[in-house]
Amino acid sequence: MSSLHEFQVNVRVAIARARVRIKGTIQDPAWMIAEMIIPMFSIGGFILLYRALGAPASYSGFVIVGGAMIAFWTNMLWGMAAQFYWEKEVGNLEIYFVAPISRMAILLGMALGSVVTMVLRVFGIVFFGILLFNVSLNIADPIALAIIFALTLASLYSLGMVFSSLYLLWGREAWKLNELLVEPTYFLSGFFFQIRGNAAVPLALQFASSFIPMTFGLDGLRKVLVLGQGLQSVLLEVSVLAAFSLALFVAAHYVLAYMENLAKKEGRLTLRWQ
Amino acid sequence: MAVKSFIRSAWYSAWLGWKLETNWADPLTFAGYYLLRPFASLLLVGFIFVIGSFAGGNTNTQYFTYLFVGQIAYVYVLQITVTTGYFIHEERAKYETLRSVYVTPTSIRPYLLGRALSAAFASTVSLLLTIVFGTIVFSGLLGLNLEIDLFRINYAALVMSLTLGIVSLISTGFILSGINLVSTRLHMNLSEYVSGIFFLLGDVIFPPTTLPYPLYLISYVLPVTYYTRAVRASIIDGAWDVVIPNLQMLLLMAILTTIVGSIVFAAAEKRAKRLGVIDRKSEY
After folding, report:
1. Could you tell me if residue B6 is left (phi over 0), alpha (psi between -120 and 50 degrees) or otherwise beta?
2. Which among A45, A198, A273 has CB closest to B51?
3. What ipTM is given for this predicted complex?
C-alpha cells in the first residue's frame, strides 16, 4: 500500500469513526440534554458561592468558561481515552487490530466526532449560564478566541491519545486513573479560578498546574472570553498550547505502538473484565 | 431464618463490593485513590472560598467552617448515589451477572444493600482521610481558622446523623436502581442528576434560601438537606438542642425514603419482569 493510499484510507477511517460518534449522540437527545443540564448544578453552586463571597462579576464568567470546558475534559477522558476499554469489553478491539488502519486514525475520528457534539453542548452550557445566572461575556477578539480554542482542543485530544494507550494493557487500573483525573484536574487546572499568577494560590500549585495543557487553555479562554483581551495578551498560552499539541501528538504515536506491543506480549490486548 | 439469610447475603455482597473496589491495587494506592477525589473536591471548593474571599476583600472563617463540613458530609452522598445509580448497569451489562443474581434463592435486595453498604464503608475511609488532609492544608498551610473543637463535637449525634443519612441515601439508591431496572440508558445520567441536585439544593456549600423562590422549597423535601444540617450541627455546635430538630427531621426523612424506596423498587422489579427487560442490554 502506497503512502498516499494509506493516508486516504486513514482519513476515511477517521471520518467513519467520527460519523458513528455524531450519529450516536444525535440519536440520543436525552443524553445530550443531560450533558448540558448536569454541569449546571455545580456551575450554579460555584457562581452562587462566588457571589456570596463578594467576588467581582468576572468570576461568574470564569465559572461558565470552566464549566463549559469540563465538557471537553470529560469527553477526552471517557469518550476517547477510555474508549479502547469499551471496545475491548464489547469485543470490537480485535476488529480494529486486524484491520489495515492506524489506531491514531480511529482516535482522531473519535476526537472529531466529539468536537462536533461537544461544541453543541458547550453552547448549551454557555447559553443556560447566561440566561439563568445573568453572566456577561466580553469577546473583543474572535480570532484569538478561535486560535486558543482550537489549540486547547488539539492539545487535549492529543493527551487523550496518549491516555488511550494505557487501556491496551490495563483495565480497571486505567479506569481508576481516569477517575482520578476528574476532580483533581478540575482543581489543579483551575477550571473555576485562575491558578497561574494568582497571588492567593501557593507557588507550588501554580508550578504543578503548568504541566497540564488545559491550564493554559483555560487561562487563554478566560482572557479572551471574559476579560475582553486580544491575541497579544495570549501569546504565551498560544505558544505553550502549540508546543503541547505537537509534543503529545508525536508522543501518542510512539506510546500507542509501545503499549500495543507490550499488551500483545502479555496477552492482555483482548482480555475482558480486568 | 429469612432475616438471617438476608443479613448473610447482604454481608457477602458488601464483601464482594469491597473486593471489587479494592483488589485492583495495593492498599497504599487504594488509600491514595480514596483520598484524592474527595480531597480534590474539598480543595476545589476551599480554594474558591480562598480566591473569592481574596477578591471580595472579606474572609469569613465561620462560613468556611460551614462549607468545609458540608463538603465533607457530601462524600457519602456522592459515593452512595453513584454506586447505587450504576449498580444495575454494572450487573446487567458490564459483568452480565444480573440474571445469575435472580436465579439464586435470595433476592436482589440484600445484594444491592450490601453493595451500597460497601460504598458507605469506602466513603468512611475517604471521609477520614479528607478530614485529616483538609485540616492540614487549610488550617496548617493556608492559615484558615477552622472553627471545629474536637472536644465540642457531639460524637453520639454525629454517629446518629451519619447512620440515618446513610439509610436515606441507600433508600434513594433503591429508587435509582428501580428506575434503572426498567430503563437501559439512564444509569450514568441519573446518579449525576441526583447528586447534582443534592449538591445544589442540599445545604452543602450555601444555604438553600440563597436560591430564588420557589427553587429553594425543593430543599425542604430532600433528606440530604437534613443530613447535612444534622452533621454540621453535631460537629460545629454540638449542643443537643441544636442537633435534635435536625435529627428528628432526618429520622422522618429516613423512614419516608425507606418506604418510598421499597415501593418504587418493588414496582419497578414487577414491571421489569412483566416486560421481560431484567437482563436487557443496550449499548452502542
Report:
1. alpha
2. A198
3. 0.85
Count of structural domains within chain B: 1
Q: Dump pLDDT digits (tens) for B107-145.
A: 889 999 999 999 999 899 888 888 888 888 888 888 888
3-class SS of residue A28: coil
Q: Is B61 inside a domain boundary?
A: yes
| Nearest Cα to Cα of residue A73 among A165, A175, A159 | A159
Shortest Cα–Cα distance, B25 to chain A (Å): 7
* Tens-place pLDDT, residues B10-27: 999 999 988 887 777 777
Q: How far apart are CA A226 and CA A59, in angstroms?
A: 9
Q: Tell me which chain B residues have a C-beta less than 8 angstroms from the C-beta of A181.
A: none
Answer yes or no: is B283 within a domain: no
The rounded distance, in Å, linking the Cα atoms of A234 and A43 is: 25
Which of B217, B83, B227, B44 is CA-nearest to residue A70?
B44
Decide if B47 and A201 are in contact by the 8 Å CB cutoff: yes
Give how far A150 is from chain B: nearest CA, Å: 26
Which domain, by its residues, includes B6? Answer: 2-275
Please report the number of interchain residue pairs, chain A to chain B, with beta-carbon separation below 8 angstroms.
118
Q: Using omega within 30 degrees of 0 as the cis cutoff, is the peptide bond preceding B105 cis?
A: no
Q: Looking at the domain assignment, is residue B280 inside a domain? A: no
Is-contact A60 A50, C-beta < 8 A?
A: yes
How far is it, in rounded angstroms, from Cα B138 to Cα B145? 8
pLDDT(B284) > 80: no
Grid cell at residue B55: 477578591
Q: What is the pTM of this model?
A: 0.85
**Owner of C-alpha cell 479502547:** A84
Interfacial residues of B (vs A; Cβ cutoff 8 Å): 24-25, 33, 36-38, 40-41, 43-45, 47-58, 60, 63, 67, 94-95, 141, 185, 189, 192-193, 196-197, 199-200, 204-206, 210-211, 283-284
pLDDT, tens only, B165-199: 999 999 999 999 999 998 877 776 788 888 889 99
